[in-house]
What does this fold into?
Amino acid sequence: MKKFLLVLFIFIVILAILFGVIFLINFYRAKNIPPEDSAKSTGEIFNPKLAPLRHRLETIDDPNIGSNDAPIIIVQFMDFKCPFCAQNFFALRELSFLYPKDIKIIIRDYPLTSEDSLTLALAGNCAYEQGKFWQFHDKLFQAKDDVVVSNLSQYAMQVGINIKQFNNCLTSEKYKKEVFKTTIMKTKMRYVIYVQK
It folds into this structure.
């Protein structure tokens, strides 16, 4: 019963995020108001408490998708082994396809769920190095619980990654410092959604 209630709660949270983002997009389109003007005038959409953190949250060297001018930014602190991230995967990717000009999604490493989380985060960075992060990201989440570290090279090959370069990158733990740079933030948030100001 507890498991059912947890799944139901997660589903409701995902729906709330989706409806919230879609509402904001439709609000801007209907009113034809630039997001920055709306944020200043209402004082409700833009959260001033996030402003000092923005330079730490919104990075340019992490995987992202969507327009740099998008009025809505979603920063996801992600772990490939996190069940919540897996459940939200389809919703976020659908948003990225439906609203590429209105939403920008930034992925930050947050490998805390299992003993394989760090290796998977490093693999994601190695895929990003070759410009194949999103293909690799989608492949891992589509595999769901079947994702195992011993199959990473196989997943990488399936999405067109240079295996020799990928394996060298992964073995050397080239991006370990980059991964821990995010984890050190010790944020309790999985998602941060804010409107450009």
Summary: The beta strands are 64-65, 72-78, 103-109, 191-195. The chain is about 55% helix and 10% strand. The first strand starts at residue 64 and ends at 65. Residues 2-31 form the longest helix (30 residues).
